[in-house]
Amino acid sequence: MRPRTQARPRPQAVLTQRGAALAIARTFAYMRGSQTKRPGGRTDVAKITYIEHNGTEHVVDVPNGLTVMEGARDNGIPGIEADCGGACACSTCHVYVHPDWTDKLPPVESMEEDMLDFAYQPDPKRSRLTCQLKVSDALDGLVVQMPEKQI
Ligand code: FES
Predict the structure, then answer these.
(1) pLDDT in tens, the chain (151 residues)
(2) So what's the pLDDT on residue 147?
(3) Fewer CB atoms inside 10 A, N or C side of the chain?
(4) Longest dimension (CA), the chain
(5) With a 6 A CB cut-off, is 95 part of the ligand 1 pocket?
(6) How far apart are CA 79 and CA 24, in angstroms?
(7) CATH code, domain with 70
(8) Is 107 inside a domain boundary?
(9) SS3 breakdown of the chain: % helix, strand, coil, rounded to 5?
(10) Is residue 99 part of a domain?
(11) CB of 82 closer than 6 A to ligand 1?
């Protein structure tokens, strides 16, 4: 991960246009039913624990195929704002992943790494953007904690 010592200007206009286009695309994908379903229509889920900054825990079943951000959004969990709708263009879906899970998640890709630079008090080892974490059986039991605030 790149050192976070240098502040860079935020290309807001470009991100906003791109973010809107991607958010629309994701919405249509969601409406088409992008979750993984087993025969009989049962949707597989992963149990994910979201911990607010004040310690309040929310344990919810999130369907496979959604993102960890969408799991919070769909369950009304506070602390993940997701202003760009999941387009990796705002960093307001930032969380700290429980230390037991940091090595079990897919690696941070460059776009997420860049956006984490704008997150509130990112932790180089534990910070992730929840819109970039796709829910699957492998994430069953994941624990994430929201920061004190989003940017
Ligand atoms: Fe905007 Fe994740 S929702 S970066």
Answers:
(1) 555 555 555 555 445 555 555 555 555 545 544 445 555 555 699 999 999 999 999 999 999 999 999 999 999 999 999 999 999 999 999 999 999 999 999 999 999 999 999 999 999 999 999 999 999 999 999 999 999 999 9
(2) 98
(3) N
(4) 52
(5) no
(6) 23
(7) 3.10.20.30
(8) yes
(9) 30, 20, 55
(10) yes
(11) yes
pLDDT (0 to 100) of residue 63: 97
Instruction: Write the single-letter amino acid at 129.
Output: L
Does residue 124 lie in a domain region? yes
51-to-7, 58, 132, 148, 150 alpha-carbon distances in Å: 29, 6, 18, 11, 14
- Cα(87) to centroid of ligand 1, in Å? 6
Question: How many domains is the chain built from?
Answer: 1
pLDDT at residue 38, as a whole number: 53
In angstroms, what is the span from residue 40 Cα to ligand 1's centroid? 33
Residue nearest ligand 1's atom 4 by CA: 88
Containing structural domain, residue 134: 43-145
| 44 CA distance to ligand 1 middle (Å) | 24
